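Hi C.,

You asked whether I'd gotten around to modeling the 99-residue construct. I have! Everything is below, sequence then structure, no commentary in between.
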Amino acid sequence: MPRYFFHVREGSDLNRDSEGQVCPDAEAARREAINAVREIMGEKLLHGGALNHRSIEIADETGHVVDVVNSRDVLFKAGRFRSYADDVTHSASAKPPHR
């Protein structure tokens, strides 16, 4: 299986991933990048900081950037807020807790 590298770009700074990760294909690598951006955004929401200045550049083994994922890709799809099947808020009970 091919190895993909997830370089984190923040403004003009690029933090290169030197290890990479083996993924079946570029689409699987994109899903990994989306999960990473979700995690980064969650940390920024908890601890403060800009949400829109960071992206992940997905590069193949030759160094060619095959895709870029940023916060807009994570938050929106076709101009509407996205939801995810693994959204933990879906499992929250609709009933108030017993007192």
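If it helps when you're writing up: The chain has one domain: 3-75.

Thanks,
B.
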